[in-house]
């Protein structure tokens, strides 16, 4: 059983995200608009911030948001069909290459990337669209 993790304060989150501070609410609000209601669930992490956030819709984890050293690292896991949808989508070639280079495990193909720009936020939303569409 996991220990409950205290969510960070706004100040702690802002300090951890640095220049990526605005990306966090944009991702969450974009996902909320598409798939709300969402649950933000904090878990312990071995990374420097000590916590990561699972963004859930019902029982499904949509995305992992990981504050790190002045930036936001995002993690997604795509099952087989979601992977094929992503490879046929408008994702930029670098993201598709990361997916192709990742060997699938029991849960699918997991990738992480740093979110810096509006285009990165759009990539996150597209990946989550593929995850959700694969379950429909």
Keywords:
5 strands, Aspartate Aminotransferase, domain 1, globular, 5 helices, alpha+beta, 136 residues
Task: Describe it.
There is one protein chain. The protein is of the alpha+beta class. It has one domain: Aspartate Aminotransferase, domain 1. It is built from five helices and five strands. A five-stranded antiparallel β-sheet has the order 1-2-3-4-5. Strand 3 and strand 4 form a beta hairpin. Helix 2 runs parallel beside helix 5 and helix 3 packs across helix 5. The protein is globular and about 40 Å long. The termini are far apart.
List the helices and strands and how they pair.
Blueprint: H1 10-17, H2 23-35, E1 39-44, E2 51-57, E3 60-68, E4 71-78, H3 80-87, H4 93-101, E5 109-115, H5 118-135
Antiparallel strand pairs: 1-2, 2-3, 3-4, 4-5
Helix pairs in contact: 2-5, 3-5
Helix content class: 40-55%
- Give the rounded overall mean pLDDT: 93
Number of continuous helical runs: 5
At the fold tier of CATH, the topology name is Aspartate Aminotransferase, domain 1
Element-by-element helix/strand order: HHEEEEHHEH
- Supply the CATH architecture: Alpha-Beta Complex
What best-fitting shape do the alpha-carbon axes yield? globular
Low-confidence stretches: none
Largest sheet report: 5 strands, antiparallel
Helix/strand structural class: alpha+beta
Radius of gyration: 14 Å
């Amino acid at each position: 059983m996991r220990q409950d993790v205290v969510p960070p304060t706004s100040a702690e989150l802002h300090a951890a995200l640095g220049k990526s501070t605005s990306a966090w609410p944009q991702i969450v609000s974009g996902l909320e608009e598409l798939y709300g209601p969402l649950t933000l669930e904090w878990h312990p992490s071995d990374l420097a911030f000590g916590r990561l956030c699972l963004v859930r819709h019902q029982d499904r984890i949509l995305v992992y948001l990981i504050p790190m050293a002045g930036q936001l690292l995002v993690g997604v896991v795509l099952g087989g069909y979601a992977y094929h949808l992503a490879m046929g989508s408008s994702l930029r070639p670098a993201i598709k290459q990361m997916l192709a280079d990742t060997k699938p495990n029991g849960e699918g193909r997991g990738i992480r990337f740093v979110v810096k720009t509006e285009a990165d936020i759009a990539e996150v939303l597209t990946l989550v669209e593929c995850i959700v569409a694969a379950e429909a």
